[in-house]
What does this fold into?
Amino acid sequence: MQAELAGRAIIVTGAGRGIGAAMAHGLAAEGAALTIADISTETAEETAEAIRAAGGTAIAATVDVTERESVKEMIARTAEAHGKLDVIFNNAGIAQTRPFLSITEEDWHRVLDVNGLGVLICMQEAIHRFLDQGTGGKIINTASIAGKQGYEPLAHYCASKFGVVALTQAAARAFGARQITANCICPGVVATEMWKVIDKGFKDEGLTSRDNEAFETFSAGILLGRPSTADDLVGVARFLASGASDYMTGQSLVVDGGMVFV
Ligand SMILES: NC(=O)c1ccc[n+]([C@@H]2O[C@H](COP(=O)([O-])OP(=O)(O)OC[C@H]3O[C@@H](n4cnc5c(N)ncnc54)[C@H](O)[C@@H]3O)[C@@H](O)[C@H]2O)c1
It folds into this structure.
Protein backbone atom coordinates (compact mmCIF):
# COMPACT_ATOMS: atom_id res chain seq x y z
CA MET A 1 0.00 0.00 0.00
CA GLN A 2 1.32 3.46 -0.88
CA ALA A 3 2.10 5.81 2.01
CA GLU A 4 -0.63 8.43 2.51
CA LEU A 5 1.62 11.43 1.77
CA ALA A 6 4.09 9.89 -0.69
CA GLY A 7 5.55 12.54 -3.01
CA ARG A 8 4.20 15.54 -1.08
CA ALA A 9 6.68 18.35 -0.42
CA ILE A 10 5.89 19.88 2.97
CA ILE A 11 7.40 22.73 4.99
CA VAL A 12 6.86 22.83 8.74
CA THR A 13 8.00 26.03 10.45
CA GLY A 14 9.00 25.87 14.10
CA ALA A 15 9.81 22.20 13.53
CA GLY A 16 13.04 22.18 15.51
CA ARG A 17 11.12 21.02 18.57
CA GLY A 18 7.69 20.66 20.15
CA ILE A 19 4.51 20.39 18.11
CA GLY A 20 6.26 21.17 14.80
CA ALA A 21 8.85 18.44 15.30
CA ALA A 22 6.17 15.87 16.19
CA MET A 23 4.10 16.82 13.14
CA ALA A 24 7.17 16.65 10.89
CA HIS A 25 8.02 13.15 12.12
CA GLY A 26 4.44 12.01 11.59
CA LEU A 27 4.25 13.48 8.08
CA ALA A 28 7.62 12.00 7.06
CA ALA A 29 6.52 8.58 8.31
CA GLU A 30 3.70 8.77 5.74
CA GLY A 31 6.17 9.39 2.90
CA ALA A 32 6.24 13.20 2.67
CA ALA A 33 9.47 15.06 1.84
CA LEU A 34 9.99 17.58 4.65
CA THR A 35 11.64 20.93 5.10
CA ILE A 36 12.33 21.39 8.80
CA ALA A 37 12.35 25.16 9.21
CA ASP A 38 13.28 26.92 12.41
CA ILE A 39 15.04 30.02 13.66
CA SER A 40 17.31 27.60 15.52
CA THR A 41 19.64 26.02 12.97
CA GLU A 42 20.79 23.50 15.54
CA THR A 43 17.35 22.08 16.40
CA ALA A 44 16.21 22.20 12.74
CA GLU A 45 19.20 20.07 11.80
CA GLU A 46 18.60 17.70 14.72
CA THR A 47 14.97 17.09 13.69
CA ALA A 48 15.90 16.65 10.01
CA GLU A 49 18.67 14.22 10.94
CA ALA A 50 16.32 12.22 13.20
CA ILE A 51 13.81 11.93 10.35
CA ARG A 52 16.51 10.78 7.93
CA ALA A 53 17.78 8.28 10.52
CA ALA A 54 14.24 6.86 10.68
CA GLY A 55 14.27 6.39 6.89
CA GLY A 56 12.41 9.58 5.95
CA THR A 57 13.25 12.50 3.67
CA ALA A 58 14.05 15.86 5.25
CA ILE A 59 16.22 18.93 4.83
CA ALA A 60 16.82 21.62 7.43
CA ALA A 61 16.29 25.33 6.71
CA THR A 62 17.12 28.20 9.02
CA VAL A 63 14.32 30.75 8.85
CA ASP A 64 13.06 33.76 10.73
CA VAL A 65 9.39 33.84 9.76
CA THR A 66 9.26 37.61 10.36
CA GLU A 67 11.85 38.22 7.60
CA ARG A 68 10.46 37.99 4.07
CA GLU A 69 13.82 37.28 2.40
CA SER A 70 14.44 34.46 4.85
CA VAL A 71 11.01 32.97 4.10
CA LYS A 72 11.61 33.24 0.32
CA GLU A 73 14.91 31.42 0.78
CA MET A 74 13.17 28.64 2.77
CA ILE A 75 10.66 28.13 -0.05
CA ALA A 76 13.37 28.25 -2.75
CA ARG A 77 15.43 25.66 -0.87
CA THR A 78 12.37 23.44 -0.56
CA ALA A 79 11.65 23.65 -4.30
CA GLU A 80 15.30 22.91 -5.07
CA ALA A 81 15.44 19.88 -2.75
CA HIS A 82 11.95 18.40 -3.29
CA GLY A 83 11.07 19.82 -6.73
CA LYS A 84 7.98 21.77 -5.57
CA LEU A 85 5.89 22.86 -2.60
CA ASP A 86 2.57 21.17 -1.84
CA VAL A 87 1.83 22.00 1.78
CA ILE A 88 3.06 24.53 4.35
CA PHE A 89 2.48 24.26 8.09
CA ASN A 90 2.89 27.72 9.61
CA ASN A 91 3.54 26.53 13.12
CA ALA A 92 6.38 28.70 14.48
CA GLY A 93 5.22 30.79 17.39
CA ILE A 94 6.15 32.34 20.71
CA ALA A 95 4.21 32.96 23.92
CA GLN A 96 4.52 35.37 26.81
CA THR A 97 2.67 35.58 30.12
CA ARG A 98 1.85 39.17 31.02
CA PRO A 99 -1.09 40.52 33.06
CA PHE A 100 -3.46 42.58 30.90
CA LEU A 101 -2.52 45.98 32.35
CA SER A 102 1.22 45.26 32.10
CA ILE A 103 1.42 44.45 28.37
CA THR A 104 3.78 46.96 26.80
CA GLU A 105 4.01 48.08 23.19
CA GLU A 106 7.24 46.09 22.96
CA ASP A 107 5.52 42.91 24.27
CA TRP A 108 2.70 43.39 21.78
CA HIS A 109 5.01 43.86 18.79
CA ARG A 110 7.25 40.93 19.73
CA VAL A 111 4.39 38.43 20.02
CA LEU A 112 2.33 39.79 17.13
CA ASP A 113 5.39 39.97 14.86
CA VAL A 114 6.14 36.26 15.10
CA ASN A 115 2.61 34.86 15.52
CA GLY A 116 0.79 37.30 13.23
CA LEU A 117 3.13 38.92 10.70
CA GLY A 118 5.25 35.75 10.49
CA VAL A 119 2.21 33.68 9.53
CA LEU A 120 1.08 36.32 7.00
CA ILE A 121 4.49 36.42 5.29
CA CYS A 122 4.76 32.62 5.13
CA MET A 123 1.22 32.37 3.73
CA GLN A 124 1.90 35.06 1.11
CA GLU A 125 5.16 33.53 -0.08
CA ALA A 126 3.70 30.00 -0.17
CA ILE A 127 0.69 31.28 -2.15
CA HIS A 128 3.03 32.96 -4.67
CA ARG A 129 4.77 29.62 -5.10
CA PHE A 130 1.47 27.70 -5.50
CA LEU A 131 0.26 30.21 -8.10
CA ASP A 132 3.56 30.03 -10.02
CA GLN A 133 3.38 26.23 -9.97
CA GLY A 134 -0.28 26.34 -11.05
CA THR A 135 -0.90 23.40 -8.75
CA GLY A 136 -3.01 24.67 -5.88
CA GLY A 137 -1.73 23.86 -2.41
CA LYS A 138 -2.52 23.53 1.26
CA ILE A 139 -1.85 26.01 4.05
CA ILE A 140 -2.19 24.74 7.60
CA ASN A 141 -1.66 27.26 10.37
CA THR A 142 -1.18 26.47 14.04
CA ALA A 143 -3.60 28.71 15.91
CA SER A 144 -4.72 27.71 19.42
CA ILE A 145 -7.70 27.51 21.75
CA ALA A 146 -6.32 30.99 22.51
CA GLY A 147 -7.52 31.86 19.00
CA LYS A 148 -11.06 30.97 20.05
CA GLN A 149 -11.21 32.32 23.59
CA GLY A 150 -9.46 35.15 25.43
CA TYR A 151 -7.35 34.05 28.39
CA GLU A 152 -5.79 36.21 31.07
CA PRO A 153 -2.83 36.79 31.35
CA LEU A 154 -2.16 35.94 27.71
CA ALA A 155 -4.21 38.66 26.01
CA HIS A 156 -1.65 39.67 23.37
CA TYR A 157 -0.90 36.00 22.62
CA CYS A 158 -4.66 35.40 22.25
CA ALA A 159 -4.93 38.42 19.94
CA SER A 160 -2.19 36.93 17.76
CA LYS A 161 -3.98 33.57 17.56
CA PHE A 162 -7.40 35.12 16.79
CA GLY A 163 -5.41 36.83 14.03
CA VAL A 164 -4.19 33.49 12.72
CA VAL A 165 -7.80 32.29 12.47
CA ALA A 166 -8.69 35.49 10.59
CA LEU A 167 -5.78 35.12 8.15
CA THR A 168 -6.82 31.51 7.53
CA GLN A 169 -10.42 32.46 6.74
CA ALA A 170 -9.43 35.41 4.54
CA ALA A 171 -6.97 33.35 2.49
CA ALA A 172 -9.53 30.56 2.12
CA ARG A 173 -11.97 33.09 0.61
CA ALA A 174 -9.32 34.73 -1.58
CA PHE A 175 -7.70 31.63 -3.10
CA GLY A 176 -10.27 28.83 -3.06
CA ALA A 177 -10.95 29.30 -6.77
CA ARG A 178 -7.26 28.58 -7.39
CA GLN A 179 -7.50 25.33 -5.37
CA ILE A 180 -5.43 26.74 -2.55
CA THR A 181 -6.94 25.77 0.79
CA ALA A 182 -6.24 27.25 4.22
CA ASN A 183 -7.18 25.63 7.50
CA CYS A 184 -5.88 25.83 11.02
CA ILE A 185 -5.31 23.58 13.98
CA CYS A 186 -6.14 24.84 17.47
CA PRO A 187 -4.25 22.85 20.10
CA GLY A 188 -5.14 23.09 23.79
CA VAL A 189 -2.59 22.69 26.60
CA VAL A 190 0.39 20.89 25.10
CA ALA A 191 3.37 19.78 27.18
CA THR A 192 6.20 21.50 25.27
CA GLU A 193 8.94 24.01 26.03
CA MET A 194 6.40 26.76 25.28
CA TRP A 195 4.25 25.78 28.23
CA LYS A 196 7.35 25.84 30.45
CA VAL A 197 7.81 29.48 29.37
CA ILE A 198 4.14 30.27 30.05
CA ASP A 199 4.23 28.50 33.42
CA LYS A 200 7.42 30.30 34.47
CA GLY A 201 5.78 33.57 33.41
CA PHE A 202 2.85 32.94 35.78
CA LYS A 203 5.29 32.34 38.63
CA ASP A 204 7.52 35.31 37.76
CA GLU A 205 4.46 37.57 37.66
CA GLY A 206 3.44 36.34 41.14
CA LEU A 207 0.27 34.69 39.78
CA THR A 208 1.27 31.20 40.95
CA SER A 209 3.53 30.07 43.77
CA ARG A 210 5.15 26.90 42.42
CA ASP A 211 6.45 25.37 39.20
CA ASN A 212 3.83 23.64 37.04
CA GLU A 213 0.91 25.21 38.93
CA ALA A 214 -0.44 27.15 35.94
CA PHE A 215 -0.01 24.12 33.66
CA GLU A 216 -1.93 21.94 36.12
CA THR A 217 -4.66 24.55 36.65
CA PHE A 218 -5.22 25.00 32.91
CA SER A 219 -5.24 21.21 32.42
CA ALA A 220 -7.61 20.46 35.30
CA GLY A 221 -10.89 20.56 33.41
CA ILE A 222 -9.84 18.74 30.23
CA LEU A 223 -12.61 16.27 29.43
CA LEU A 224 -10.28 13.51 28.29
CA GLY A 225 -8.50 13.73 31.62
CA ARG A 226 -4.98 14.78 30.65
CA PRO A 227 -3.06 17.56 28.92
CA SER A 228 -1.98 17.10 25.30
CA THR A 229 1.31 15.76 24.07
CA ALA A 230 2.74 17.07 20.80
CA ASP A 231 1.99 13.65 19.28
CA ASP A 232 -1.74 14.23 19.86
CA LEU A 233 -1.60 16.76 17.00
CA VAL A 234 -0.08 14.38 14.46
CA GLY A 235 -3.30 12.70 13.29
CA VAL A 236 -5.02 15.95 12.36
CA ALA A 237 -1.83 17.25 10.73
CA ARG A 238 -1.68 14.17 8.51
CA PHE A 239 -5.36 14.53 7.66
CA LEU A 240 -5.02 18.20 6.71
CA ALA A 241 -1.92 17.48 4.58
CA SER A 242 -3.62 14.61 2.77
CA GLY A 243 -6.17 14.33 -0.02
CA ALA A 244 -8.77 13.36 2.59
CA SER A 245 -9.17 17.06 3.47
CA ASP A 246 -9.24 18.40 -0.11
CA TYR A 247 -12.82 19.69 0.15
CA MET A 248 -12.18 21.63 3.38
CA THR A 249 -11.10 25.23 3.61
CA GLY A 250 -11.34 28.14 6.06
CA GLN A 251 -11.81 25.81 9.03
CA SER A 252 -10.29 25.69 12.50
CA LEU A 253 -9.98 22.22 13.99
CA VAL A 254 -9.83 22.33 17.78
CA VAL A 255 -7.75 19.43 19.12
CA ASP A 256 -7.72 20.07 22.87
CA GLY A 257 -9.01 16.94 24.59
CA GLY A 258 -12.28 18.78 25.30
CA MET A 259 -11.70 22.32 26.60
CA VAL A 260 -13.33 24.79 24.24
CA PHE A 261 -16.49 24.09 22.22
CA VAL A 262 -16.89 26.35 19.20
N1 LIG B 1 2.25 24.34 23.66
C1 LIG B 1 0.95 24.65 23.67
O1 LIG B 1 0.23 24.41 24.65
C2 LIG B 1 0.31 25.27 22.46
C3 LIG B 1 -1.08 25.39 22.46
C4 LIG B 1 -1.71 25.97 21.36
C5 LIG B 1 -0.96 26.42 20.30
N2 LIG B 1 0.40 26.31 20.34
C6 LIG B 1 1.12 26.81 19.18
O2 LIG B 1 1.81 25.74 18.58
C7 LIG B 1 2.97 26.22 17.91
C8 LIG B 1 4.17 25.41 18.36
O3 LIG B 1 4.29 25.56 19.75
P1 LIG B 1 5.19 24.61 20.69
O4 LIG B 1 4.41 24.39 21.92
O5 LIG B 1 5.70 23.47 19.91
O6 LIG B 1 6.36 25.67 21.06
P2 LIG B 1 7.92 25.52 21.14
O7 LIG B 1 8.39 26.77 21.77
O8 LIG B 1 8.33 24.22 21.73
O9 LIG B 1 8.36 25.51 19.59
C9 LIG B 1 8.25 26.65 18.79
C10 LIG B 1 9.33 26.61 17.73
O10 LIG B 1 9.18 27.80 16.92
C11 LIG B 1 10.49 28.32 16.68
N3 LIG B 1 10.42 29.75 16.40
C12 LIG B 1 10.17 30.76 17.26
N4 LIG B 1 10.24 31.95 16.65
C13 LIG B 1 10.55 31.69 15.35
C14 LIG B 1 10.77 32.52 14.21
N5 LIG B 1 10.71 33.86 14.29
N6 LIG B 1 11.05 31.94 13.04
C15 LIG B 1 11.14 30.59 12.95
N7 LIG B 1 10.97 29.75 14.00
C16 LIG B 1 10.67 30.30 15.18
C17 LIG B 1 11.27 28.01 17.95
O11 LIG B 1 12.68 28.05 17.74
C18 LIG B 1 10.75 26.63 18.32
O12 LIG B 1 11.52 25.60 17.74
C19 LIG B 1 3.05 27.70 18.25
O13 LIG B 1 2.50 28.46 17.19
C20 LIG B 1 2.19 27.82 19.49
O14 LIG B 1 1.68 29.13 19.66
C21 LIG B 1 1.05 25.74 21.38
Summary: The domain at 9-194+230-248 is CATH 3.40.50.720 (Rossmann fold).
